[in-house]
Design brief:
α4 links the parallel β4 and β5. By secondary structure, the chain is α/β, with parallel strands linked by helices. It is globular, with a radius of gyration of 18 Å.
Length: 282
Amino acid sequence: MQLGEFGVWTSYRAIGEENAGEAARLVEDLGFGTFWLGGSPQLPALGPLLQATERIVVATGILNVWASEPERVASDFAELEARFPGRVLLGIGIGHPEATRHYDKPLAAMQSFLDALDAASAAVPTGRRCLAALGPKMLKLSAERSLGAHTYFVPVAHTRAARERLGETAILVPELACVLDDDLESARAKARAYAALYLGLGNYTNNLLHHGYNEHDIGDGGSDRLIDAIIPHGLAEEIATAARRHLSAGADHVCLQAVGVHGVPRPEWTALASAVGIGSLR
């Protein structure tokens, strides 16, 4: 799929579901290649985004296997594919043990879910799905059973290591949260408010401990060093530089999540599009 080098990542909680069409049209008009819808959506939630646009890929970021039935997912994918051919990417993830009561053997659960998608009456093609992955085993599975890996809340060091694990052909798509605010104190406060959830989830903190950070970095809301690396802030040009570091480390596509704002982040997305050089509002 042609995802483009840059996309946006957001959720209906952030922008308001009633603003889906406006947001999707803006993303397409600005020249971004992909709209990633977070918040563990089911596939029908992509409908308003696809209906409002003509070209961009729309992806789930991510559909949670514990809350999804594979046959229904395959049926929903087939319905969207019939209406919007070639424009839907099924991002699938295992979620977090802290948020899932029945969380157990995540790799086996993902393998079973993929097996069921393959066996469905309208199977989801391997090249139209990707896996949320951080650790080596899930990265390996994403390369074997899907288009590639979607990573989240990761430093550049993880992107570099993930590319080595994936090999050359699987795609690598890191999410990059960012704060467009050139006031250092204000920007870090917004970044820490966003990071608080993820610094309380073991899969993210364990991943950080394996890629250059320590317990001091993770504690007390995150060290300045960690916050600045994971959630770059400042002018759009500074954030574009941080995004390109992921591309240089092996990413194929970076999805930018503007945090610390409410509603459709029109000024932020517009500034980011200009800074990464993908075009201007037509």
